[in-house]
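quick one, 67 residues, struct below
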Amino acid sequence: MTVQEMARRITKLEEAVAELSPATPRNGAWYVARAGQFKNDPVYDEIVKRGQAYRRSLRPKLRGKTR
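---
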């Protein structure tokens, strides 16, 4: 395999990998690119609600005090 053939192969592989990878801003702020992805999604809202309830259940109970 010549160097030119190898370079073409590497270029094709890089293009294929770029298509597989989700777009992420170069500054590393992946959460900015994903913000709003599940807006108005009732299933996601339910997931959040159940996650919050689970985390609340892990908190120690306070005796004689109400929250």
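The chain has a mean pLDDT of 86.
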